[in-house]
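Deliverable D4.2, example record:
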Amino acid sequence: MPNQPLGGNEMPRFAGPGTFMRLPAADTAQGLDVGFIGIPMDIGTSWRSGTRFGPKQIRAESNMLRPYNMWTRAAPFDSLQCADLGDVPINTFDLKDSVRRITEYYDEVLKHDVTPMTLGGDHTLTLPVLRSIAKKHGPVALVHVDAHADINEHMFGEEIAHGTPFRRAHEEGLLQDNKVFQIGLRGTGYAADDFDEARRWGFTVIQAEELWHQSLTPLAARIKEHIGDTPCYITYDIDSLDPAYAPGTGTPEICGLTPPQAVELIRGLAGLNIVGVDLVEVSPPYDPSGNTALVGANILYEMLCILPGVKTGG
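Output generated by the structure prediction step:
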C-alpha cells in the first residue's frame, strides 16, 4: 500500500509531523513517484520579503487536506508513492549560490523516476529547477500562472531574480517556446508593450482581463490540445490570484483570478505529461490568517491529483 497522509481522526490536525499533508518524510527519492520539496528562500524578491516562510506554512495548512478529491474522485495516494523530501539547504546570504544548490539538489532527486512538487519560496527558484528538469526531459512545455511575466532583462543589474526566470529559461533553451502559456498577467508596466516580447518569442500570453467572469475549463482544453504529450512543467505563482483571496504574497496585483478559476484550470489540465510543478510566492507575514497558504496547499493538492498515473476511486 502506498504511503497515506496521517488522518485527522488518527492524530489531531494541529499535531503530528510537519510534512506536506503529514506524509512520511524521506531522505531520498528512491522508490517514490512524487516528492514534495520545500525551497525556503526570499533573497530573489524585489518588494516584500517573507517567502522563506512559505514552505513551512503551506505544509502546516495542508493538515486540513484529506486524501480523496470529492469532485474528480482522484485518489492520488492510492495511485502514487508520495513522501516529503524536506527542504533544499539554500545559502540565505547568496542568491547565485542558492540557485546552484537548487539545481544540484534536483539533479540528485531526478536520478530517480520521480515527479518533484515544489513549495516556494520566491519565483527565482523555477529557473534552477527547470535547468535540472531539462537535463532529464529536454526542453519542456510550460504552463505559467502568474500576475507577472517574469521576463525582465535584469533587476538592479542582476540577471537572476524573481522577475527574470522565464527570460533566462527562454535564452537557455529550457522551454519549447511555442508551447509556453502565461496566464493571468495584469497590472501596470514599465512600457505599454511589456507583455509583447514573450509573444514575439512564441509564448502564448493570456492577460487576466481576458478571463474575468469566465470559466477556465475551455482554456485548459485549448492548452491540452496544443501541448499534447510533450513533457510539461506547471509553475503557479500565488499572486495570480486576486489579493482578496491571497493577500500573503510579495507583489500583489488587483483584479486577479479567483480560486474556482484556478481549480478549473488545473483540473482541466488532467492528461498532460506533467514532469514537475511548483507553487511559489506565498509570504506568510502578510497574511496572519494563513488563508493564502491554505489556498496554496489546495492548489498543490489539485496539481497532485492530475499527475500521470493518478486513478479515480470509488
